[in-house]
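A.,

Following up on our hallway conversation. Structure tokens first:
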């Protein structure tokens, strides 16, 4: 990114163009952070796969994350405000679900070793972060002033 928010705001762009440029800059930063999170998520899932029970949990998270990120890509390619609203619904909070996953893994397999539990914990935390970043990216899809765009 050659220009920063401050430089964009100081340029002679029209307000709508300036807002769009800032949105694009933030979307780019979010996508970069998503890629970084995905690298760490892959490593945590790879570590989880060393044990059958934690490997199953990792596989389920991978499948879920893939589906959610495909929905984000589809919404990004669409001009349909309903599709953007739908993806925002899909990318809702996952905190409680991930906490249940963290608690269920050792409960379902009492012999699950601590490194497997650590890997599942890391994967669930990264899953939450990636979803949070994806939601932020989806919020930036709607043009400024879009009446259908959720604010949270």
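Then the amino acids I'd put at each of the 152 positions:
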């Amino acid at each position: 990114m050659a220009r920063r928010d401050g430089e964009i705001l100081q340029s002679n762009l029209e307000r709508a163009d300036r807002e769009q440029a800032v949105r694009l800059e933030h979307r780019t930063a979010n996508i970069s952070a998503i890629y970084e999170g995905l690298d760490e998520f892959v490593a945590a899932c790879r570590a989880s796969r060393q044990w059958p029970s934690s490997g199953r949990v990792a596989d389920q998270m991978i499948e879920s994350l893939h589906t959610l990120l495909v929905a984000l890509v589809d919404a990004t390619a669409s001009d349909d405000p309903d599709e953007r609203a739908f993806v925002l619904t899909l990318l809702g909070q996952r905190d409680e679900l991930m906490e249940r996953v963290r608690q269920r893994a050792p409960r379902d397999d009492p012999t699950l070793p601590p490194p497997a539990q650590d890997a599942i914990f890391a994967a669930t935390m990264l899953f939450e972060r990636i979803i949070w970043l994806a939601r932020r990216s989806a919020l930036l899809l709607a043009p400024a002033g879009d009446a259908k765009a959720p604010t949270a």
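The chain has six helices and no strands. Curious whether your intuition agrees with the design.

B.
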